C-alpha cells in the first residue's frame, strides 16, 4: 500500500521526547536488522544514536514530524544556511512499521519544496545502512561524495562539531557523505 498524504509539521516542545524515542527506535531497527544486537555500533548503552546527538540536531536545526494521513510515522531535521544555501539533512527516520510505503521519499520531496533556494543538500549515513544508501542514491538523487573512516576521518565530530582526533580509528566504522546539487 503506497502512502496517500504525507505532510511535515514542525516539532512541538510537547512532542520532543517522543521524537527522540522514535528516532532511536528507527535507528536501532536498522542496525539490528543488519547486525543483530551488537554493542560496537551503539553511541550510548543500547542506542545506535545517542540522545545528545538527537538533541543537538533538534536544537541547531528545524525539526519536523512526518505524518501520513495525519498519523505520525517519522521525523526529520534540516539545517538551513541562509547565506550559502548549502543545506544539511541532519536526521530522517520513518517508523519501521511504515517502511516501503513511499513515506520517506514523499517527506524528502516536501523538504525540497519547502526549501526551493537550496543550492546543495548534504547528508550522511553509516556504512552499514544499505537501506539508507539505496534511498538517498537511487530514490532521492544524491551522490556519494566521501567516505569517512579511520583512514579518512570526518574533520568535525558529529557530537561536538570540534575537530576529530582519531588516533587509530578504534570503534569507528565509517560514514558515507552524500550531496545533491539542486542548481
How would you sum up this structure, described in words?
This protein has 183 residues and is an alpha+beta fold. It has one domain: Aminopeptidase, CATH 3.40.630. 28% of the residues lie in helices and 27% in strands. The protein has helices at 16-35, 51-60, 103-114, 130-139, and strands spanning 6-10, 62-68, 71-79, 86-94, 120-126, 143-148, 175-181. It has a 7-stranded mixed beta sheet, sandwiched between helices. A hairpin with a 2-residue loop joins strand 2 (62-68) and strand 3. The chain is globular. The relative contact order is 0.15.
The helix-and-strand class reads alpha+beta
Q: What is the string of SSEs from the N terminus onward?
A: EHHEEEHEHEE
Q: How many E-type strands? A: 7
The biggest sheet, with number of strands, parallel, antiparallel or mixed sense and barrel status, is:
7 strands, mixed
CATH architecture: 3-Layer(aba) Sandwich
Return the CATH topology: Aminopeptidase
Can you tell me the CATH superfamily? Gcn5-related N-acetyltransferase (GNAT)
Radius of gyration: 16 Å
Instruction: Write down the domain tally.
Output: 1
Number of helices: 4
**What topology, given as strand order, has the largest sheet?**
1-2-3-4-5-7-6
Low-pLDDT ranges: 38-44, 159-171
Task: Summarize the amount of helix as a percent range.
Answer: 25-40%
C-alpha end-to-end distance: 33 Å
Query: Beta-sheet strand percentage?
Result: 25-35%
Q: Determine the mean pLDDT.
A: 84
Amino acid at each position: 500500500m503506497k502512502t496517500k498524504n504525507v505532510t511535515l509539521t514542525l516539532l512541538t516542545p510537547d512532542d520532543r521526547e517522543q521524537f527522540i524515542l522514535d528516532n532511536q527506535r528507527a535507528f536501532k531497527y536498522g542496525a539490528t536488522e543488519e547486525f543483530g544486537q551488537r554493542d560496537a555500533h551503539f553511541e550510548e548503552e543500547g542506542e545506535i544514536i545517542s540522545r545528545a546527538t538527537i538533541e543537538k540536531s533538534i536544537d541547531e536545526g528545524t525539526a519536523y514530524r512526518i505524518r501520513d494521513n495525519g498519523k505520525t510515522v517519522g521525523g526529520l531535521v534540516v539545517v538551513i544556511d541562509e547565506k550559502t544555501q548549502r543545506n544539511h539533512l541532519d536526521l530522517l527516520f520513518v517508523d519501521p512499521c511504515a517502511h516501503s510505503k513511499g513515506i520517506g521519499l514523499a517527506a524528502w520531496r516536501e523538504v525540497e519544496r519547502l526549501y526551493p533556494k537550496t543550492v546543495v543538500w548534504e547528508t550522511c549515513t553509516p556504512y552499514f545502512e544499505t537501506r539508507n544508501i539505496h534511498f538517498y542514491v537511487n530514490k532521492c538523487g544524491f551522490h556519494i561524495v566521501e567516505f569517512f573512516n579511520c583512514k579518512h576521518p570526518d574533520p568535525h565530530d558529529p557530537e561536538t562539531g570540534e575537530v576529530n582526533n582519531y588516533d587509530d580509528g578504534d570503534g569507528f566504522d565509517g560514514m558515507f557523505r552524500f550531496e545533491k546539487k539542486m542548481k
